[in-house]
Amino acid sequence: MLKNRWIALYVENEVGVLAKIAGLFAGKSYNLESLTVGTTENEDISRMTITSTCDDLTFEQIKKQLNRMVEVIKVMDLTDTPIHMKEVLFAKVKKCTDEDKAEVFRIADVFSVHVVDIGPDSVLLECMLTERRNNELIRLLKSRFAKVEIVRGGAVAIESISTSCR
Predict the structure, then answer these.
(1) Which of 14, 28, 50, 91 has its CA 20 to 30 A from that of 113?
(2) What is the pTM of this model?
């Protein structure tokens, strides 16, 4: 059965590591939904958060192949772990009337997102929500406004300290 899976990797912070990880997914035709990478508190180590949609067997193969890579320090399966996960999203609503702008501001308030820029006929929202909430926001904006531009970053996740999840 296909389902969303999350992996966190600690990798050596070196040129070409991201390309090797992405190449593994491409070479094996694994479905890579999202890949986010950034340095950690140790400048020599980066942490990647990977989202993939796959079955159990494929997911086990992915983890084994990642563990075999020299540059990979640690592979963590976050799929069934309590985590805090957010995704960065920018939503630009274009060709707005004054009434449209007021509606965008109301929607931003309901979703607790920030209006970071405004022009004569457009509004730019900055969101850091869960993937599900970002999807809900996108659906709402597209249903209410004719011209919406979306830019999404990948999800980042960290293991929960308590038992609260996603």
Answers:
(1) 50
(2) 0.81
